[in-house]
Please model this.
Amino acid sequence: MATTCVIRDVNRHVGEEVRIGCWLHNKRSSGKIQFLQLRDGTGYIQGVVVKSEVSEEIWDNAKSLTQESSMYVTGIIREEPRSKSGFEMTVTNVEIIQITHDYPITPKEHGVDFLMDNRHLWLRAPKQRAILTVRGEIIRAVQNFFDENGFTLVDPPILTPTSAEGTTNLFHTKYFDEDAFLTQSGQLYMEAAAMALGKVYSFGPTFRAEKSKTRRHLIEFWMIEPEMAFVDHEESLRIQEQFVSHIVQSVVKNCRAELETLERDITKLEKIKAPFPRISYDDAIKFLKDNGHEIEWGEDFGAPHETAIAESYETPVFITNYPAGIKAFYMKPDPNRPEVVLCADMIAPEGYGEIIGGSQRIDDPELMEERFKEHNLSSETYKWYMDLRRYGTVPHSGFGLGLERTVAWICGVDHVRETIPFPRMLYRLYP
Ligand code: 4AD
Ligand code: MG
Model:
């Protein structure tokens, strides 16, 4: 019996007969020869069925195959320089598992709503498969980076009694008799972990009931949140640029075929190397005003502002030192200029917007108390967070990288809905 293998590994079986579990992606035929485009999740290969070389039954089996029919195909692997993968299979047997009827996603164009309703099937499309493969590679690169730089993975809770990033987009739920919220960010817990383990990072889902329907917003998204004791804002920026360069270069190195499927301009990604430029919030406001945008000091940037600023650069750019009034309660004021905070947003090039938000955290207990009052946060629920300032407080910084926006940028896809297997969006919970 032929050895079982997956399409990714056919290069190890040249000249051998192998058996592959797969689906029919597409098919062409002339009267005497059928070309089966086979996919098994690990790759694609063309199976060639020659009428004069197989039994009538096998020929008819191949002929009956429709798009997404499932089967085992047996055949001999040959090198084929003209094929994209470099290999082809001369089919010796086709064992049908199921003939599929009326597969909804045909090779023709479909509307986005239709595709989203069929997301569970759309995932099988080459482009969607490529995006999820890149997503997997990004996660691997994230873990490698932190493993190599002395960070420990720590998991913050999903159900929380408090808000971390403001109260306007909290997902409320009951926790028996208490009120609870789905986490918006693990940061506050990661600060506790950093005081216990030094350098830590988390990777998990976060939830924001954002009423905005934009190509950058999801209701459920995944965030990578490092937190570092004894690290100031400056050092944090250096770590961020190293981190993002590492991710992009890992994808360039390990996902070339996927980037080609996505028709991504790889030369643009090759330029993503640290250090990244920095522009202060003040200078960004000035730049925007000089370029005809209506914005005043103290206002937050919208997507068009971020895009306008990012257009001047080929790498991501840091916008630093925002006004305290438009940033989170925990950010440390600049000692020389307390109206701005020691923070930065990293804006991706090519209009993909903010991919990282980060800051140095307030470590002074009195100032923290003041901020709680200003932001109407109950010192009861945040007591544990205050304890971190009471018992051996130290300078510390951290940041959060949004995974889906990073995937969107690296893959060059223009909406985050394609960057996560099953997107949760405003007005979409199915499938
Ligand atoms: O800037 P944000 O809100 O920062 C925090 O949550 C901090 N607590 C992180 C930290 O310092 N530990 O969110 C961080 C990143 C954004 O830059 C963006 O990439 C992503 O999370 N993000 C979203 N991605 C998709 N959909 C949404 N609704 C997002 N909101 C934020
Ligand atoms: Mg932000």
User: Anything to note?
Assistant: The first strand starts at residue 3 and ends at 4. The two ends are 40 Å apart (CA to CA). The chain has 13 helices and 19 strands. Residues 217 and 416 are 7 Å apart (CA to CA).
